[in-house]
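re: ur question from the group chat, yeah i did fold both. here u go
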Amino acid sequence: MANVTVYLKCDRNVESQNGDIFLKDIATIQCADQQVLAKCKAIKVHHFTESDQAQGGKSSGSGKKPWAGGGHQQRTVVSVLKVISLMEETCPGITVQSVGETDVVLERVSVPKYKGGKLWCKVALVCLVSFFGTGFTIMAFHNDVGINEVFTEIYRIAMGREPGGLNVLEVAYSLGLALGIIVFFNHIGGRRITKDPTPIEVSMRNYEEDVNKALVDTAGREGKEVDA
């Protein structure tokens, strides 16, 4: 297997429902030698045990598997140097070129097969909180800036008299506010207006990157990173 180059592109974060994590699950591998490629893909990178860090459930010493049930997950951080070491051990003489991430966050998650009423109740609760919370925020902002006084003054200047109840400025502003929210969030129901990611998607990706970076840094400081 001399003079065989294997190109390795690891992902930053990998989720799996299985206890055994193989190289094909966490990285894209390219090699001209198909035999070497097959061997590399079949390498077991990590096996989740009860000693791995549990998230969202009881600790591993409780006697209950931390991934049992919905909402439980395990995490560990694997260095790409450990992955390269396993590849060279399996296929001696190969040259590994890493073009991806330097650390991989592995997560074992438990996803219930059937979504029950509890999940739908959570969705309904989040929708209600978001709706009324957003409405309260908009009303509080308008009250702080005195939007009613502004509309009254504009109407008085334009029409030369006091407004009598609801006027065209308030109606136009309300419609424009709703349209602006739709355009800003780039969604109408379940449809996307443009192909660009929405502000929420961008914020979630940034948050995910920050979480992954924090997990890698924490694992390195605590000496829990799976390294070569």
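okk and heres the other one u asked abt
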Amino acid sequence: MGLLLDYMLADGVYLQARLEGEKQCLLVIIGATPEGKKELVGFTDGYRESAQNWRELLLDLKARGLTVAPKLAVGDGALGFWKALEEIWPKTQAQRCWVHKTMNVLNNFPKSLHGKAKSDLQNIWMAETKEDASKAFDLFIEKYQAKYPKATHCLSKDREELLNFYDFPAEHWKHIRTTNPIESTFATVKHRTKRSKNCLSSPNSFCYGV
């Protein structure tokens, strides 16, 4: 039986344990059905989140029954995933993860301004409407562009992809503006492998629900 997903959350989870001398990365996809149910639909080991690794995982999902493209995919700035997605499901809209983007933007501010800048960023993704979010976005750029151009460029270059979630039902927003559910799901795995060395063997791809 095929799987119908409105949303797809994708992220690379890096473990402290090493595989053949390389730090292990799990490529993970969590899906959300039109009814709002979340489930782990696929994961595999990957090498630095390459486009080829993501491509193989997406093709595996497609072969196992995910034949209808998700409406929205949520991910961080890893170019490999977006390149693979564009090839496999070019009509799926992209949503950049606000948690990852916030960290990236704050890296361009002095620590003394992190609290203020983070609050201003929250005014964008927690706005009641897309129009209000756009106004908060413009205000952030206006406030910080002169003194912190790297920070404002980091934000503005992904403007469309950061605000796409507003085009979907409001009750889904909190689930589709970040890939945090993946971090939460694999937190225990990361904890258990934190002090391990050379304890992993290369698994095949795993897919669930398709």
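fwiw on the second one: Confidence is low (pLDDT under 50) at residues 189-204, 206-210. The chain is about 40% helix and 20% strand. idk if thats what u expected
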